[in-house]
Amino acid sequence: MTQPAGGGAEGGRDRATLALMDLVREATVRIHRPGPGYVPDGSDTGFLGSGFFIAPSWVLTCAHVVLQGEGGGVNVVFRPDRHSAAETAVAGTIVATLPETGPGTGPRAPGWPAPDLALIRLLEPAEHACVYVTERPAAMLPGGRVHYVGWTGPRGGRPAAVSGDCAVKGMFGGPADDGQQIRLGGDWMEAGMSGGPVVDLARGEVVGVLKSRIEGEQGGTAVGIERLRTLPVPAGAEDRRADHYHAVFHAHDRHHADRHDSTAGTERTWVDAQSELATGPGHTLSPRQRIVLLGRLADIPPPVSTRALLDLLDSLPDVWSGDHRPAPRGWRDGLAALYEVRDGDPALELVLRYCMAVISADRPYEATGTAEATQALWEWVRRTADDRLSRGFRKELDLLWSAGRNRPVPGRRAPHARPGAAEPPAARSFVLLSLELRGWEQGRYDWRIAVGEGDGDFRPVAEDAHGTALADLPSRLAAPLAEAFRCCDEPDSPAVLQVATDRALFTLDVDKWCLAPHEPPLGVVRPVVLRCADQEAYDEEWSAKERKVRWNRMAAGPVRGEVIDCVAGIRVRVPETAELRTLAHETVPLLCQYGGHSPAEALAGLGRVVSAGYGVVLWRRRAGQAGAVCTEFHRRGADTVAQAGVSGRLPYLIHELRKSVRAGRIETYWSDSVALLYDDPHHPLPGSGQLLEAP
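Given the sequence above, the corresponding structure tokens read:
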């Protein structure tokens, strides 16, 4: 093993470094195939790789390690007593992997894609150590040094523990790229170490997971621990109680806070070792203050959504939530977003303001003990302020606490109201996907993803200008879209996906894309609407003014639908622009025969509608047969528009129809191929220069 990092003249720091390495080794485990193949002396052949206890009964490792096993089970092998070499094996089940599926098998199969993480839950109680996991995003910076620990395959019949130091060389990918990996160099890594912890010994935190080694060379790759923020929320976890991310990190923070508070043990803890180091996450809180605060936060129900947490952070002075990717998900992540924003007492004031915002925040549920946990957090805030801060600030805290105690009766927050006349979708955050077909490389697309805010601003999330094949778009877009949705979704109210393309690409049925195996199509999960990216369609000054007049009239309602390209099942030409302009401003054009036209005719007809100033249009991508099916679209389409009352409800009614088609409700089958243009002229699409600032 290489010499421990962080050594020097200070003996206390050397002792702390050695203690941290011991603490890491105690929590590092081996992953074995399930079943009776394990032998206590480690001489079996079922060894798969490494992992580590991230919280009581929870193990973090690599997805490619555990998915070598059979089914969803593994054995976790570790030493329950730091003073004994005796090992034990406890069965575990794989509860989540990132990504959910691998690259396939075979000699030519690609390497497992990042983030390549997996969570294992033990199936029976066991005593064991746990690492301390950083709350800081992107904790591994180029130029730093990290320590790693893991196991290798049998040597002389037994697996061997190996550790060492590496330098952080750089990154593969940007902060918004779900495939981001950290490049490590300077030491040899061996097969079997994948899944082991990567530690920043200068701060005393686990910051990553070893992913791969470089065959025949020094170094390898690791994945930052913050990538766990992108774990999907399991079905049925609407109130966050079954959310694996919150379950793991609440248990993690309570575990370390309890160990710090306990007077029963005499052995050094992570907090003890961290307190002897010269550096830490800012200098606002000592390691002991930080772990007590994290323990208090872990006793309070999590944010109702990532969007709610982002709004809370943005309400604080000098804090911009967009600096942190992946987006913060839990209270500990929000606390980390405050580090190094300010120095001295102003920094502590910022932390305490954050705590008061947590106390008064909406909650997804009210658990037994929440009131006591809130009181305990307030007492910590008051005690901390009394030690250092001014009387004026302490008075402000008292007023905030009094206001929080007078809030409405606590309980689960009511679901976010579906937007209607008073709250069109533009008033909420949404996700914008811009697709552009490469003229010089047919069949390949450049794309950009951004989060659109209610005030008209756009925050870039990710982009790719290297050309993606149409068949690969759903899988390539899955991770960045998931991150963007997480920043916008509210409980029971998924954000709208706006797809901006040229009119020629309106035939793309993005609403039918499945971003992951076994997931329902996008249009079933959330509202999906189209926007027209053809700038030439809006270059007339009159058209721009007319669009706003029509839009405002439809937003006020009532609206009505009118079929403009079909009479009694017979296709007719879409009227000329001048004639379309004479229709009443509350009219929503219905295109019944759009899918039956030649591509050129369909494009030209829709172009005339757009040029006439219509921002809301409903059409069928596939033309129906004459007779009843066509009549059904006429009648049902007009009824749907009338039922909406205002244009702002149409995206949500179309979403309900798509869910009903998926559920097999025959009366909604008429809507199977409908598309909705919903192009708000008051919130124009961002210019390419703005989105090109994406990471």
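The chain is about 30% helix and 20% strand. Try to locate this feature in the token string yourself.
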